UniProtKB/TrEMBL annotation:
One GO BP: L-valine catabolic process
Name of the protein: 3-hydroxyisobutyryl-CoA hydrolase
UniProt keyword terms in alphabetical order: Hydrolase
Region forming the signal peptide: none
Any one Pfam family match given in the protein's UniProt record, by short name: ECH_2
Primary enzyme class: hydrolase
Reactions catalysed, as given in the entry: 3-hydroxy-2-methylpropanoyl-CoA + H2O = 3-hydroxy-2-methylpropanoate + CoA + H(+)
Cellular component, GO annotation: cytosol
Lineage, broadest ranks: Bacteria, Bacillati, Actinomycetota, Actinomycetes, Kitasatosporales
Length: 344
């Protein structure tokens, strides 16, 4: 249940500040929270007193862990109407952030995943710290990277985005900067100075430090080779054939994911490379997400990870061989009730 305090909206000087305020739930997003953020951004876009927007998360654990997936689980069991309504607010908000007319600064400190990436990684100014843990973890729960994440992953160097998207790997600050999910590195000890600044965007120039090394960048050779394959099955074969411990671990990660969602994710990432805009990518993601709400693997994945926490999902179907091209194609069809239409 939403409360008026789930999002704090205030003006500090000429800066509009949005604070996601559900720290006990890692600031996970509800429908009402998205509507509050959207309303504030719409008002501030026309308010000459506001020269910049600053997004932060309450508490000391992170910006946002994503959507309230337990609520999505419960809604999907009832037919998914609430989930579709949620996405119809969330995805246009992600697109608005990408073209917001004033500097929008997102502090991706701590856990920043899923829907949290959607509210931050499309911003004009994206800041990570040594505590940042950035991920698109959707394949862990029988879903596909969304909130424009499939575009960010598709445009990452080489095949790093394919690796991160399929395995649901967590990126460090250095990884997020290298993969195009962030722009600036700021030590967490400098956050109070940034938050106290009259102009946080200007203050960032004097506070930011050189980017830390990316662990993923150091593994480009085997990642690029393995994930350049055309199918999930061939990716697995290549991972196993490298003889590298890191590649073997990646293969094991893939084998624990929904076979259907792995194949849909790979198709979505490949298609996203050819789509011209974020809006077009979000349209594609809306189709996929609506189809996922009707697929048993979403409810089962959230059950296994969040509800019962047995970490033993029973996917349907349970093998990659049982997922055919026609099964994947269904996820890209226009859903009942119409398309999102952001790219029109």
């Amino acid at each position: 249940m939403d409360t008026p305090q789930d999002v704090l909206v205030e003006r500090t000087g000429s800066t509009g500040r949005i604070t996601l305020n559900r720290p006990r739930a890692l600031n996970s997003l509800t429908h009402g929270m998205l509507e509050t953020v959207r309303a504030a951004l719409d008002v501030w876009a026309e308010d000459d007193r506001i020269t910049a927007v600053l997004l932060t998360g309450a508490g000391d654990r992170g910006l946002c862990a994503g959507a309230d997936i337990r609520a999505i689980h419960d809604d999907a069991k009832l037919g998914g109407a609430g989930g579709r309504a949620f996405f119809r607010v969330e995805y246009p908000l992600n697109e608005l952030i990408s073209r917001y007319p004033k500097p929008y600064l997102a502090l991706m400190d701590g856990i920043t995943m899923g829907g949290g990436v959607g509210l931050s990684a499309h911003a004009a100014v994206r800041v990570v710290t040594e505590r940042s843990a950035v991920a698109m973890p959707e394949t862990r729960i029988g879903l596909v990277p969304d909130v424009g994440g499939s575009r960010l992953l598709a445009l990452a160097p080489g095949e790093l985005g394919t690796h991160v998207g399929l395995t649901a790997a967590t990126m460090t600050a250095g990884d997020a900067l290298y993969c195009g999910f962030a722009d600036h590195f700021l030590p967490s000890a400098a956050l109070p100075a940034l938050l106290a600044a009259a102009d946080p965007v200007a203050a960032l120039a004097g506070l930011a430090q050189p980017a830390p090394a990316s662990e993923l960048a150091a593994q480009r050779e085997w990642i690029d080779h393995c994930y350049a394959a055309d199918t999930v099955e061939e990716i697995l074969d290549r991972l196993r054939a490298t003889g590298l411990a890191e590649a073997k671990e990646a293969a094991e990660q893939l084998l624990g994911k929904s076979p259907t969602m792995l194949k849909v994710t790979l198709a979505a990432l490949r298609r996203a490379r050819t789509l011209p805009t974020l809006a077009a990518t979000l349209d594609q993601e809306y189709r996929i997400s609506c189809a996922a709400l009707a697929h048993p693997d979403l409810v089962e994945g959230i059950r296994a990870q969040v509800v019962d926490k047995d970490r033993n999902p029973r996917w349907s179907p349970g093998t990659l061989a049982a997922v055919g091209p026609e099964d994947v194609a269904r996820f890209f069809a226009v859903p009942e009730g119409g398309d999102l239409g952001l790219a029109r």
